[in-house]
Design a protein that fits this description.
Blueprint: H1 3-35, H2 46-49, H3 62-90, H4 96-119, H5 125-147, H6 151-171, H7 175-191, H8 199-213, H9 224-248, H10 259-279, H11 286-304, H12 310-336, H13 344-364, H14 367-388, H15 391-410, H16 421-444, H17 452-456, H18 461-464, H19 466-489, H20 494-519, H21 522-546, H22 550-577
Helix pairs in contact: 3-4, 3-5, 4-5, 4-6, 5-6, 5-7, 6-7, 6-8, 7-8, 7-9, 8-9, 8-10, 9-11, 10-11, 11-13, 12-13, 13-14, 14-15, 14-16, 15-16, 15-19, 16-19, 19-20, 20-21, 20-22, 21-22
Length: about 575
């Protein structure tokens, strides 16, 4: 009887020691995971209370190297088992079909083990998941090339690897798992059957990869959507090139190119990318800012290879114009939200502007319609950029206004004799008017304060150059209008027409000199002097060498009058600037 209390006491002591030992083991496991950077220990965990500081090790010490070596060892053993299965299959010990599906099952088992370790927050979860996804994708690609695995089954397995790795990575905040799985699956879907993969299924898998890459699990994964979009861009270039090569040579399009699925797949791709653009924060990365415009460019470049008739071009142009209007509405909606929208209005406004130009051209195919429409739109976008406070959109609109005139000149709209005198005069007058209005607005309204454009050019030099574009538009318009008059009066017209152009430049300089004097505008005076110098250079460097007789006399006389008026204006200007004696 006397031994029973002592025995019960010893059992209780042993139980207490076992409980304490269990707590210390759990605490050591938590601290080891913290040192490896996997998961923080909860505030009420045994690691926070039961274990003192001596167990902890400094970051980057032996514990860190131990964790890295353990990962390497795990990867090595995983590869050893995979190589054993590969060797048995190649040696004929295992049937090829059975060996392939055994490898697939082994890859799926690795991902399942990774999932189980993610759930229980155990070590090795990333290693097993990533190894399973990589092994599965590589096995599928090799099997499809060597043994002609059905495309549907191959892409289904790749999609499983993509969804599993991306889903686990996003669910348990493991960016490495999502990054590796998404990139490997996207590359494998393109490699299946390259250079002519199963295009429709590949497009779906790549869209899944794009969606999986969109919400990065950390800042470290911000580059992931850019890489996946480049893979998607390469795929569409590949499909477009194959189709265009067959269509351009008038050959029958092979069935494996899936021409019937091209436009529906492109439409779905555009809608998915547009939805991703609206979901992404515009200031999260440069990719988010350019994605709407890149989506428009990708879609237009892809559909360009399919336009084989004028009717198809008009239909694509109408769809593009509708897209531009929809993007402009999205930008306007985001602008109404105010500062909370961030840079969203700007990126959709730029995308709408980019889509509008080819939409007009494909719809009308008339440069006389496209150029005025683009110039009007550029002026409207410039006004809109002020309400958005966007210096980038303002610069784009201003450069477009300059580019419209350059395109009109390069396209021969102002050649003599003109294709249509009335259309050329109307086009030139409209461009001159819009350019003048745009330039006056740019001089009155400074660039948005704080924008990069305002810091680089506080006085808006690009907008100030509108004067020269307006002068060029006025000169081209009057030049076209003069030609039929001279043609009805003299024959030949080459010499008189050349002299008339010199007279025109000098007359424009005279008008500017007088206007500058009346308005006391020093900036306008400088421009008038430069224009007069241009007229003098034309007279003495070109007309003196090629003209003679009355045309040469008129050209030299016009410059003389311009010089006299300039001397008078400058003299009066200096005299008026001097103080009046008392």
């Amino acid at each position: 009887m006397s031994n029973q209390p002592s025995e019960s006491g010893s059992f209780q002591a042993m139980a207490a020691e076992l409980v304490a030992l269990r707590k210390r083991c759990e605490a050591m496991e938590f601290r080891l995971e913290r040192l490896e950077g996997r998961t923080p220990a909860p505030a009420d965990s045994p690691a926070a209370t039961a274990v003192d500081a001596p167990i902890a090790a400094p970051s980057g010490g032996l514990a860190t190297h131990s964790g890295a070596l353990r990962r390497v060892a795990t990867i090595t053993f995983v590869l050893v088992i995979a190589l054993v299965l590969r060797t048995l299959t190649d040696g004929g010990v295992i049937d090829t079909t059975f060996g392939v599906w055994l490898g697939v099952g082994y890859s799926l088992l690795l991902m399942a083990v990774g999932w189980q370790r993610f759930v229980h927050e155990r070590s090795g979860r990333r290693v097993f998941t990533i190894c399973g996804a990589v092994l599965l994708c590589s096995l599928v690609v090799e099997t499809q090339r060597r043994f002609d695995l059905p495309m549907a089954a191959a892409h289904s397995l790749v999609a499983i690897a993509l969804l599993a790795s991306a889903g686990l990575g996003h669910r348990y905040r493991s960016p490495t798992t999502a990054e590796v799985g998404t990139l490997v699956a996207a590359a494998s879907s393109i490699a299946l059957g390259f250079p002519r993969p199963h295009f429709s299924i590949t497009a779906i898998v790549l869209l899944f990869a794009m969606v999986a890459a969109t919400p990065p699990t950390s800042r470290r994964a911000a580059w992931l959507p850019t890489i996946v979009f480049c893979q998607l861009l390469f795929f569409w270039l590949l499909w477009t090139f194959n189709l265009h090569a067959a269509i351009a040579h008038g050959k029958e399009v092979p069935a494996e190119l899936m021409q019937w699925a091209f436009l529906p797949a492109l439409a779905v791709t555009f809608l998915v990318l547009a939805a991703i653009s609206m979901a992404m924060r515009p200031r999260s990365s440069a990719f988010a800012a350019v994605l709407p415009t890149a989506t428009v460019v990708l879609s237009l470049a892809a559909v360009d290879g399919m336009m084989t008739s004028e009717g198809a071009s008009r239909m694509v142009g109408a769809i593009t114009l509708g897209t531009a209007i929809a993007l402009a509405c999205i930008a306007r909606r985001d602008a109404a939200r105010g500062p909370t929208a961030g840079g969203a209005p700007l990126r959709f406004a730029v995308a709408a502007f980019v889509a509008m130009v080819p939409g007009l051209w494909l719809t009308t195919s008339q440069i006389w319609v496209v150029l005025p429409a683009v110039a009007i739109n550029a002026f409207v976008v410039a006004l809109w950029s002020h309400s958005l406070g966007s210096g980038g959109l303002r610069l784009l609109a201003t450069l477009t206004q300059h580019a419209v005139l350059l395109v009109a000149i390069a396209a021969g709209c102002f050649t003599t004799p003109p294709e249509s005198e009335l259309l050329a005069i109307v086009l030139g007058g409209l461009l001159a008017t819009l350019t003048i209005l745009h330039g006056r607005w740019a001089r009155r309204v400074p660039p948005p304060a704080g924008s990069l454009y305002a810091r680089l050019s506080p006085t808006d030099l690009v907008g100030g150059a509108m004067f020269w574009s307006a002068s060029a538009a006025i000169f081209c318009t009057l030049r076209v209008a003069m030609f039929p008059v001279l043609a009805s009066m003299t024959t030949p017209t080459d010499g008189p027409f050349q002299a008339a152009q010199s007279v025109l430049v000098n007359v424009m300089a005279m008008v500017l000199l007088v206007t500058a004097k009346v308005r006391r505008n020093q900036e306008l005076l400088r421009r008038a002097v430069i224009l007069a110098a241009v007229g003098g250079a034309k007279v003495f460097a070109a007309d003196f060498l090629t003209l003679q007789g009355v045309p040469l006399v008129l050209a030299v006389f016009s410059f003389g009058v311009a010089a006299a008026i300039g001397s008078f204006v400058l003299g009066r200007w200096n005299k008026d600037a001097q103080p009046t004696p008392q």
